What does this fold into?
Amino acid sequence: MTRSFTLVQLRYFCTVAELENMTEAAVALKVTQSTLSSAISQLENAMEVQLFTRLHRRGLRLTPAGRRLLRSSLLLLEEADRLPETAREDGGALVGELSVGMFAPLAPFRAPAVLEEFEREHPGVHLSFLEGDQEFLRRALRDGKCELALMYDLGLGAELPRRTLQQVPPHVIVAADHPLAAEPEKPVSLRALADEPFILLDLPHTREYYLSLFKMCGIAPMIRHRASGYETVRSFVSRGHGYSVLNQRLHHDLTYAGSPVVRIPIAERLPQIEVLLVRAAGTRPTLKAQAFEEVCLRIFGLAR
It folds into this structure.
């Protein structure tokens, strides 16, 4: 006999899954921890599966069954949130929460514009971004911490559904007083920079991409510094500590260090990075996720 469950239990479950901590989830939901723990236990009994693995002093982790339930719960709760509008026949405006992953170097370029456009069109949805590197976002999609992610085509499995939004070629950046800065429109070969110190954007999968560009040119860069922050790399370059190779380009050349960098095209034909909108495998996108995709297509100039 199938036991019943409630929408409240599902909402509690989704919050615990997001925070991976019963105490923090109880605070966020404004309920006692015993109430929350009881609700999760009742839901596990109703589903006849274990939803979380309890880790000593490390919180909770979703089991495979928990991840499957989380993906389905998002769709069910979205439909439940829309029931009042459906009953009133007042257009069925989107409401609720939407969590989207965002590759950290992309966030300063795209997150503000996407947020502004999405909130203007869907004021009833609370959009939040989960920022991190490629591997962090891949795990977040797998674990149901975000429905979608804006990220690069680096280190992704073939099973992840994706849509290409943009292709971005690599370029070199140098300090304003570097000899190459005198002719910024003249392409430079990476081989010509082989003996100069290199500043590497050192993120999982990203570093492998940049190092592969040098390997294609038959050289190895002289890595002087490694930095996990996009702006840290630009600031190091602007103060003359070396050159770097990046893809995204700001609308201005100033850095946090107060000095500019100069962008120079690369002479070799090298692989571009693709900016993707990715969702978890085996999921059906919610209406909020579909609305987010439509906003991205317009911002990236791909809307029909």
In short: The mean pLDDT is 88. The longest strand covers residues 96-103.
